[in-house]
Model the fold of this input.
Amino acid sequence: MNYHLTAFIMGYVLDLLLGDPFGSFHPVVWIGKLISALTGKLLQENDSPDKKRLKGKILVIIVITISVLLTGFCLILAYKINRIFGIAVEAIITYQCLATKSLYTESMKVYHALKETSLEAGRAAVSMIVGRDTASLDEAGVTKAAVETVAENTSDGIIAPMLYLAIGGPVLGICYKAINTMDSMIGYKNDKYLDFGRAAAKLDDVVNFIPARISAYLMIMATFFLGKGYNTVNAIYIFKRDRFNHPSPNSAQTESVCAGALGVQLAGPASYFGKLKDKPYIGDMLRTIEIEDIKRTNKLMACTSILCVIICSILILAVEGRF
Done:
């Protein structure tokens, strides 16, 4: 556990310093290639819905098994070579499970595009981090999309993997990332993936259920430390009222806190693949959303992640019997 805490802290610091590694060095890239290869082998258009669901479950089992075994093997081998080398490998895998800097960097690209270039540049930047259609978004729409992305991904990109890393180290952390990646690739409710991706989508909901709520409470706590510009009372109120205003049981948990803390209205109708979806709003429009809210949301995300690191570190020490 002592080595685990060292690697845990080092991994978080590496994420803050380096952000996501690009290309084939990221384990999510390998997991994604495995999912694509298995999807190509398993998914057949003429399969019945029941058969597609069965094959989807098979894919989930294979991806998780391979991801966990390879991670475990790498860690065992690394620690057998040398304890310092083992800590280094564990720290690197930990860092690759987190997305704090990349979330900040990508959202700030939207901020700088809107602030310094043009609305068109802002649309292009936000299209890289959201799934909705962005071609017709106005400045407020682009800003809202960026804010929502940071708020939602504070949970599944930072806090959730951090919690799983604290509980089970890189093995459980990579297991979570595998599930999250499967959901992002095949968890769509469209004709192609509705049945095949059901197991992945449901499992993602399950593994994010508790972390999403912990993330929301940590985000509420973070508003205490950020002072002016963050309304704690309204964050609690909107969280209680709007935390289920989303098709997913988890996505609106942190979005509702963010909307309440900033006093803005998020979500609402949005276009996906040319079709308008009538989604409920989250929060009240106490004021119009503005570009600076991207920065404010990033501060909220950063403070939430720091609180989680502190709590996870205390838990690790408590399990070890040193706290």
The longest helix spans residues 139-186. The mean pLDDT is 92. The radius of gyration is 20 Å.
